[in-house]
Structure formats: C-alpha cells, structure tokens
Specification:
287 residues, alpha/beta, Nitrilase/N-carbamoyl-D-aminoacid amidohydrolase, five-stranded mixed β-sheet, four-stranded mixed β-sheet, 18% strand, elongated, transmembrane helix, C-N_Hydrolase
Length: 287
C-alpha cells in the first residue's frame, strides 16, 4: 500500500502500531528493504517495531518503538513507548495476577517502557534548512495530554500517533480513539496524525478540525493528506493542567467552607413541656 503514494511527493509515510515484527538492528535485510521502499516513494517511513531489542533506551527486552527509516535505512531516530496498556502489554504485579494470561488475551511477556520522549527531525527539501519536527506517540499514549504537551514544548511541529485497535474492530472504540487526536491537537496547537494498522486513521489540524476524510475500519488503503503546520503556543502548553488543579482546589475550599458551616450550626435542643398560659375572663378571674 505504501507504493500507492509514489509520485505524490509525500514528506513522510506513517505506518500503524506493530507494523514491523522484528528488530531492525538484528535484521539488516529487513532494514534494507524498508530503506529501499523509502527511496522508492521519496519520503522517510515512520514504522512501529514490536520486537525484542537490545538497542532500546532501556534494558534488553520487548519494546514498542517508533523508528524512522530513510533511503539508507534507519536514521537513528527511535522512540520507545513509555506508557503501556495494563494487561494488554504488561501484567501489573505479575506474580499475583499472572493467571490473567490463561483467561484472556493478556500479555504473555511484559513489554518494557522507554525512558524519555523523542522529537524527530525530518530531512529537508534539498536546502540546508531541516524538515519539520515530529513528536511520536504510540496508541494508548494519545489519551494523555501531558505527553503531547511535552513534545510540543520540546519543539514538535507535528504530533503522530501510531495505533492498532484490532481487538475492538466491531465496537465504538476505533472512532473514539481517533477522536482523541482532535483533543490533543487543539490543546497543543499542533496538527496531529492518527495512523492505524487496524482502526480509524485520521488527521486533525492545529485547532482540532479534521483534515480530509478519515479512513474507516473497512478501508485497506493509503492516503495522502496536506497537513498545515502551525506555530505559537496555547494556554495549555504554557501553563499545563493549572485549570484542572485550580478547579479541584476551589471545590475543596467550597466543600470545606460548607462543612464548617454545618459544624458550627447549633444542634436543635430537646423540646421541653408546653407552657401553660392563662386568660382572664369575667367568669374566671386570674388569681
């Protein structure tokens, strides 16, 4: 499918999550083939490797990694996924909950976490000026606004999420997952590409509006989008979650004030016996 964009002058080709099942460092033949594909279409290819690796940012093990491949092979730009899906990619407290692998599709072996976000710089257009800078995220990570904020503050001009929702094809999950990219774009003021191996692929401009038509779960094709770059900074990028924290603090203060008013209110006393009153009359004068 990647060859479908040949001749359309793309700046970048994005593959979905787990699109490569072998570490390119141990498979030079595969790295060479991907490099040749990049040269054929005239653009670097951002693949996603789900494999055991010794070249990752942490200890040797299985990682999910965004790897940029150019005509000469991997460029050296690599991002290892930092926030993993519980049970899907690792078992929390495996010594206690490892039995989950026998009753579902839980991870048989834990994936390992990367150490830091990475901003990648694409090749320029033949001049000395570098190309756009992209900030990759992997699947589940598009749900975390602090990660896209960090990438934007580090200089990313385009956010890219590589995903696969094969376990949820017949549900509302693929559409909902793709829509998270619109939120991240609006928050960060940067366009975002959501590319899936299985699921809904979509592109959003810096304001969160959709660019072009999305590719639904029924489509098996490649598409080219003109992604408008943006500059500047949003309030969220500058100040982060202050609005959320301020709202929580305000609610806490209001709740405490209401609680103090209740505590200071005098408790109702026990009702005493009814008072006796007299009324003077001509027949029964008051004594």
């Amino acid at each position: 499918m990647t060859r479908e964009v040949k001749g359309r002058d793309p700046d970048l080709v994005v593959w979905g999550e787990s699109s490569v099942g072998a570490d390119l460092g141990t498979r030079p033949d595969l790295a060479e083939r991907l490099g040749a594909l990049s040269g054929e279409v005239g653009a670097p290819v951002l693949v996603n490797v789900d494999a055991r690796s010794e070249d990752a940012s942490g200890a040797p093990g299985i990682y999910k990694s965004s790897v940029l491949v150019g005509p000469d092979g991997p460029t050296g730009d690599r991002y290892d996924k930092m926030r993993l899906v519980p049970f899907g990619e690792y078992i929390p407290a495996r010594s206690l909950l490892g039995w989950a692998t026998s009753v579902g599709r839980a991870a048989g072996e834990d994936r390992l976490r990367g150490n830091a976000p990475v901003v990648m710089t694409l090749p320029g257009d033949g001049t000395q000026a570098p190309g756009p800078r992209l900030g990759p995220l992997v699947c589940f990570e598009s749900a975390f606004p602090d990660m896209s904020r960090r990438l934007t503050r580090d200089g990313a001009q385009v956010l890219v999420a590589q995903s696969a929702t094969s376990s949820f094809q017949e549900s509302w999950a693929p559409e909902q997952h793709a829509s998270l990219a619109a939120l991240r774009a609006a928050e960060s003021g940067r366009p975002m590409v959501h590319a899936t191996l299985t699921g809904v692929s979509a592109v959003y401009a810096a304001g969160g509006e959709r660019v072009g038509a999305p590719l639904s779960t029924e489509r098996s094709t490649a598409a080219v989008y003109d992604v408008p770059l943006a500059t500047g900074s949003t309030l969220y990028v500058r100040f982060g979650d202050w609005a959320v924290y301020a709202s929580v603090a305000l609610l806490a203060v209001l709740g405490a004030a209401g609680g103090l008013r209740v505590l200071r209110r005098p408790a109702p006393g026990r009702a005493g016996p009814p008072a006796r009153t007299t009324r003077e009359s001509s027949r029964r004068p008051v004594r």
